[in-house]
Amino acid sequence: MRIVQLTDLHIGLENEDTYGVDVRQNFLQILDKAKAQRPDLLVISGDLCYRDGDARIYAWIKHHLDESGLPYEVMSGNHDDPVLLARAFGREGLLKGKELYFSREYADRTVLFLDTTTYEMPAKQMEWLSEALKAIKGPALVFMHHPPLPGGVPFMDSKHSLRNMEAVQAVFFEHPHPVQVFTGHYHVEKIVTKRNLTVYITPSCFFQIGQRSEDFEVDHYRVALRTIDWSNGMMMNAVHYL
Length: 242
Description:
The protein has helices spanning 23-36, 55-68, 82-88, 123-134, 154-159, 165-173; strands spanning 2-6, 41-45, 72-75, 95-96, 99-100, 102-106, 109-113, 140-143, 179-183, 190-194, 197-201, 208-209, 218-220, 224-231, 234-241. It has 242 residues and is of the alpha/beta class.
């Protein structure tokens, strides 16, 4: 099975200034690259919208995703509105209150999709995650927007990290098998490991953030996707830049 992950699209409204970056063109180009990978699934792991969730932006993205012919899942990030997103993409049945988290079965494996829109994972969602992990009798594959481990990016770690990170880690650490978590949010390419938990931070489709400064700075404007290949008990993944 092959999964392609895109993250942090930050699509603005038509003709909106997005710091001089043509985010719509970025998305169309990276979607073409995703199609060329011939994935079994495309995952967009949050921050579809530039600033705030907007039904018009979701409709534009959905149109192009549907035209691509790729099977896909969409998730909410801190610049999204999970309720609007679920309605726009026909996922209302997956909402739990105002949160959009769920599991899917692909190639006889369970994949978990979490919601950290509010910079936290609420207690009820953590209870759900704990039970979902107990039902998985081997390595777990998880998508979430915020990394559940510090990413070594001073600006993001100090100002924009997951607020209840340690509590979320504790849930993952209870799983007796490896947990592989694919995230975005940090606008960098990183791999971070602690105990049984490995976090793969995927670059943004907007711009990438400098990894040394406490202040915000742009590192570069190359955008990327991640491929995740999962077969015969082995998982391989790679980042591909445009």
